[in-house]
């Protein structure tokens, strides 16, 4: 029997070979509709991916996602993208997204107690904590594939991590901050969501190490943990503006962004520091356009949503539970290059 090729799939799906190649190799730049066309054509032709490509399960899979989106607009966007993409795929039998009650480890542990028996794959955004590590290990031991999203959970047999390299993201933020403040000696404000989130730990570490290596004229103020709450970031930003005469920059690692932006807007342009935030949302788009903030380092919620589903399906089909690591490339966004999506 003649082996099905990418050209055959392209012909059947009505798409280019380049688009088919990107879809099968789990790369970006492919719409959800086109990815669905590729997978449907590949399935109908009996295509078996070659080494380095993700296999697909032989039967539709049941997927569950646990995300602490609360008031975090980026997490909400990721949840929507996951649900939308999963619903477009014939190889997803069901997809449920559960909102966790905050980032406390017990929230995930309690939610997993009600996991449906038919579940094949689970995606989680959670803190790196003994309780969450134990919960993920138990899931994996039961045969359920697990993918961590945005922030990793170390020392677990999870199948994949989907997100940016957070250490690199933090170092990138430091490089931009240092270049923009090259001639100004002063202080940098640092806002964290929580150090229990491995991604936030990595961003902070990357930010600190590069500034200390290359921009010794800048001093990082004691980090402020906001638990992604605007009610905590708002008064902290007010105190920082009031008490720090040499404040030249602010780096917001996680959420709690609105509290910072509100204080900057109320203060006007007289004392505004150079501001770097993460994640492109409706709010950060507006703040960029209004010149309230300067740079957004974006993880691309759409691409995360698509790759989480694809890599869960790939891990379910794979003979080994762990897939090769493929980080999402962050987007560096200024007010002049704000993308449509």
Automatic annotation (TrEMBL):
One of its GO terms (molecular function) is DNA-binding transcription factor activity. InterPro entries: HTH_LacI, Lambda_DNA-bd_dom_sf, Peripla_BP_I, SBP_2_dom. Gene3D superfamilies: 3.40.50.2300, lambda repressor-like DNA-binding domains. Keywords: DNA-binding, Sugar transport, Transcription, Transcription regulation, Transport. The keyword Transport applies. It comes from Rhizobium leguminosarum bv. trifolii WSM2297. SUPFAM superfamilies: lambda repressor-like DNA-binding domains, Periplasmic binding protein-like I. It comes from the Bacteria. Residues 4-58 form the HTH lacI-type domain. It holds the Pfam family LacI. This is ABC-type sugar transport system, periplasmic component. The keyword Transcription applies.
């Amino acid at each position: 029997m003649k082996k099905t090729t990418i050209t055959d799939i392209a012909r059947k799906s009505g798409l280019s070979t380049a688009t088919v190649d990107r879809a099968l190799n789990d790369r970006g730049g492919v719409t959800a509709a086109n990815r669905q066309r590729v997978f449907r054509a590949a399935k109908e032709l009996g295509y078996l991916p070659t080494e380095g490509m993700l296999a697909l399960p032989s039967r539709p899979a049941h997927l569950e996602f646990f995300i602490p989106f609360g008031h975090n607009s980026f997490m909400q966007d990721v949840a929507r993208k996951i649900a939308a993409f999963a619903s477009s795929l014939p190889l997803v039998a069901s997809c449920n997204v559960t909102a966790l009650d905050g980032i406390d480890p017990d929230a995930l542990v309690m939610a997993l107690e009600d996991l449906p028996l038919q579940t094949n794959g689970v995606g989680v955004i959670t803190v790196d904590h003994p309780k969450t590590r134990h919960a993920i290990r138990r899931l994996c031991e039961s045969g359920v594939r697990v993918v961590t999203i945005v922030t990793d959970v170390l020392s677990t047999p999870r199948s994949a991590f989907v997100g940016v390299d957070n250490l690199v993201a933090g170092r990138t933020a430091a490089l931009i901050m240092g270049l923009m403040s090259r001639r100004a000696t002063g202080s940098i404000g640092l806002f964290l969501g929580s150090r229990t989130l491995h991604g936030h730990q990595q961003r902070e570490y990357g930010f600190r190490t590069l500034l200390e290596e290359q921009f010794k004229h800048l001093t990082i103020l004691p980090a402020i943990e906001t638990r992604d709450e605007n009610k905590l970031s708002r008064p902290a930003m007010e105190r920082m503006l009031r008490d720090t005469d040499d404040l030249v920059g602010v780096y917001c690692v996680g959420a709690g962004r609105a509290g910072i932006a509100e204080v900057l807007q109320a203060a006007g342009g007289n004392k505004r520091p150079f501001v770097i935030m993460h994640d492109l949302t409706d709010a950060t788009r507006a703040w960029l356009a209004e010149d309230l903030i300067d740079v957004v380092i974006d993880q691309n919620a759409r691409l995360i949503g698509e790759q989480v589903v694809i890599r869960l399906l790939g891990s379910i089909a794979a003979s080994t539970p762990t897939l090769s690591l493929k980080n999402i490339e962050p987007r560096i966004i200024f007010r002049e290059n704000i993308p449509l999506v």
